[in-house]
């Protein structure tokens, strides 16, 4: 019997199963244990959007609250990872990285190299990303390009509940620091997710849909947008292949290049700001490695070079949608004739 | 509609000043109660954090400020905005994401600002404001304007490195800055008795070489007095002060919060400690104002907020051309 | 009479002339006023590599020391900029951005947009970047891609003393927040620099050398490396055009596109790590906008996906050099036969 | 060559322990004096910050530590490394950027580490270590190992938000952590009397609910005693301590610093306060060790360091294949 659970539940289940399996796994974050023991609360808050809810009671002493001191507690998670624990720390919104980035990019990411290969830092930093919740400029960013830029980090960005569970289990078992980017608009989306534990390897893209006319590479929530666009395009006789990299670092370049070799066209969809984005990263990689296969200019569909606006009237224009993606695909297909 | 409240008053607190203080607090309360209701109705998008219960802090501090002075606020910023004189109609429209909003609908509740009023913005980043306030205080000092700058921040923010660094910086630069720690007992669900390692946030003042005071945040007069001293000292070149204001927030952390983590402290506070009630009792018993005068303010403010909501709802959303503007002065 | 001064002196002169011209300009940073008044010190340290030396004595009260509290003092510079000053704050090494990035990217960069166009934040953040000083992983990074990614920031990266002076004067007069990235390996390089004040507009690339076979876009210190490569290539009959964007945000895309339309080939040289880099950014932009002109794959020459190593034996391999650039150019020129 | 010094000693400080303490300090001093000389000769690349003058801190603290325990250091890390038992030959080779270095030449002076010895690394980021130490202390606590973790940091670092946050976190998590503020009077050229808003850094302990003590950093025994108390309290679940150690660094901020910003304090300290001299006087006067014994250590250490330099110079640089390795465990 297929069982459908949400992205939020899938992450929670992955955490629970890994905590069960491995006593070294601990969870920490603001309000993760908040409210425990209070009159109306059965367990604890489980973080601001409740992703870790239920774990506090099940794993006494292993779900920790933190003060609003991201440098200290993200750094503590990193330090603890060098000392035999496998912490999963929650940086509530990815936008808050600016108060603790040093610990992530100069400490965790660089230990192994700086120390000549003699450090292992198995920390997972869970964080919410993405626009669409009317949360405005400081709670809606992508910032995945910034983390992807940094050698020593791995970056996972699941686009659905099934991947979320498998990638989280891989992340926890991974010996390198992982940024686990949960798209906040996906928390309530459901998919079939096996009860039993499973892993999805990092660096293996998912071919979400096969097609021969154009390759669409999309990240996170944009995978669903691309699927909508593909449905639409199929109506016009255009068969789009959709690739979800699932992890942006490592990036499965082989799958992308192979696809472009078949389709001859590339559209990259990345909701982040455009400059030095994943769209550029993937677009340039293809323009360097598969130029001979390209029959049309690569096309990048991203957010604009602006902060994320608050008003829904503007935010909906900020975020790439199916129409914009379809438009880019049509430009690519129509190119040169 | 012009919704600006007067912000400059004498420190003596004659009847006019008292009425102004009451009107400020009453406006904040009415604003927040109404936003709470409208949010529940589903009309208001995003994250909204209400200031109800904490009015005496914004009002008590900002009554000492004038056009030379600046404040930085937090995610829970409506009260600070109103007390510093930001147009209330614009604020309401902003919360609805309308083109007529303080920030043309681009900022929302967490980013309401009006630099022309010295209001540097609500802030979505906990601890985002204190460094900025050091800068405003520095500017005032360099310009010799006599201005001061005030950072409002929460108990949770008192553990943020940016806040702690700012206390030290303000002290060694001897800045005309005032740090107002609004201790409402919680950061989201996390109790300040747990998250702050000292008994009181004010204890941290000594670690950064400045005076620290604790005041009952339900008592407008207590806040007003402490702030008056701090502002006077700052204006005279005496450097920064840390003021801890203790009270309770009346609503959840944000709208939608079920608040299972706390008991009946709000009912108790609303009944027995409320800043508006206490203010009323004191000024009427002392014969400074009459109940009729205060009731008049209540009525006036209720109409004023109602009008703000009506206008906000009717206002247009920002047009598509607004997406790309206002990123740079020139690019 | 042509006068030659160093990159360091050029920046110092720009600061001095602007402080003279505009009393709102102040300078702050760690050890910028350090040592003032002490027995052996005539002025003050002028920062760790002495760039602001001499200003302390000339502008009493306007050159300020700071504690090692980057969030507080960079934030203070930003706050002061909203209050009528035009601060130039020194973030000693760009690598330190991780302890204060929030003030830069969530505050300064977003004020104007979040506040509906009603804020002006004329702050300049001077910072040292780049590899080559044997300063290892936490003192040698580029990170320009991270800043370039952020809407609301401008990013200048002068490649020579002449540009350094003109861009600094523009930066100070600019009403938007500017990251002014000084390449530490260029401080002692000299060029002809007029004594009088002049500005170089942001977003105007410099065509360092004209050529018809290939377009090389290079950033910062890489401009000099590209020039070396071009000399070498000229020997093999390959004429390279070298473009120095001077500012990465805004980026002068027109000049780059025009050049590629003529040459049909693009090599981008960026010493940063490769993922989501400026090399990707410029490469993908060209692959989207000038695909029809491209006669060969775009080629990116960057540092590898590793932290910067300490040992000179490795650091010299990390940094793109003339041989690597020439190799990439040859690949582009030889493409397709 | 195996350059590891024993790190576990009894607390009673019998002759063996005293000899170990002296050997540690002497090794650090000789290491630093020699690196100073070699740097001047132009053989050593990059930024090098020397610990000479401050030896009693590293030695006095680390004598209480064993394999369960971890430390985090700073840019001025050689002394901490040696005191925690990192191989001295490997350290020297690292400073020369050689393949035989502690970090295979990839880290250099500012990143020497040996996790197998509980040495989490020198750190190029001021304030980088204290958060990490909270984590090591947390790991020890969760594992019930009885281990403690120590963050060394400078007076300059005591103003960094990461450090201040860590004090609070360690306190509220009740961690077995010790914070050692090494106040050598300067952060680069900036005087700590200016940059730290309080009289003493130890004053900040109270702001984070932990005991704070000040010790004379030239006195090994004073450091040793204060650290012993702090370590014992931490091991017993009594939570963190802040220890401020006051002294002077003997060389410039980094090698190459002309030090125009300070007067003759170094000459004075070397002459009258030096930790090695003081140690010698005390233990010989008390009859615990003889001058001959100590001279023997001096000779031994001088040879040991000389050998380290000879070997480091002769060692190969890392090969080109090393550029891309050691970024990830698997990618
Ligand atoms: C740097 C950062 N960390 C976390 C958050 C999420 N957050 C928003 S408000 C809040 C609680 C703030 O508590 P406090 O400072 O006491 O203010 P209060 O909400 O009680 O007014 C948290 C954790 C944030 N916005 N920024
Ligand atoms: C975050 C950060 N800011 C600035 C620096 C540059 N820097 C390196 S050491 C130093 C002074 C540190 O002073 P202190 O903490 O007292 O240590 P000391 O050098 O005296 O041992 C500075 C400013 C840095 N490495 N990291
Ligand atoms: Mg609070
Ligand atoms: Mg110092």
General description of the model:
The complex is a heterotetramer, with two copies of chain A (337 residues) and two copies of chain B (331 residues). Chain A is 36% helix and 19% strand. Chain A is of the alpha/beta class. In chain A, helix 8 (222-235) crosses helix 12. Chain A is globular and about 65 Å long. The termini of chain A are far apart. With 331 residues, chain B is an alpha/beta fold. Chain B has one domain (15-313): 3-Layer(aba) Sandwich (Rossmann fold), CATH 3.40.50.970. Chain B is built from eleven helices and seven strands. Chain B has a five-stranded parallel β-sheet with strand order 1-2-3-7-6, sandwiched between helices. In chain B, strands 4-5 form a two-stranded antiparallel sheet. In chain B, strand 4 (186-187) and strand 5 form a beta hairpin. In chain B, helix 1 (15-40) packs antiparallel against helix 2 and helix 1 packs across helix 11. The longest helix of chain B is centred in the first third of the chain and has 26 residues, at 15-40. Chain B is globular, with a radius of gyration of 19 Å. The two termini of chain B are 34 Å apart. The chains are: A alpha/beta (337), B alpha/beta (331). Chains in contact: A-B, A-C, A-D, B-C, B-D, C-D. The interface between A and C is large, with 61 and 61 residues. The complex binds thiamine diphosphate (2 copies) and magnesium ion (MG) (2 copies). One thiamine diphosphate sits between chains D (49, 74-76, 124-126, 154-157, 184, 186-188, 253) and C (30, 68, 70, 92, 96, 99).
Keywords, separated by commas or semicolons:
heterotetramer, A: 337 residues, alpha/beta, Rossmann fold, 2 domains, seven-stranded mixed β-sheet, five-stranded mixed β-sheet, 12 helices, 36% helix, globular, B: alpha/beta, 11 helices, 42% helix, 9% strand, disordered N terminus, binds thiamine diphosphate, binds magnesium ion, magnesium ion binding (chains A, C), Transketo_C/PFOR_II (chains A, C), THDP-binding (chains A, C), Acetoin catabolism protein AcoB (chains A, C)
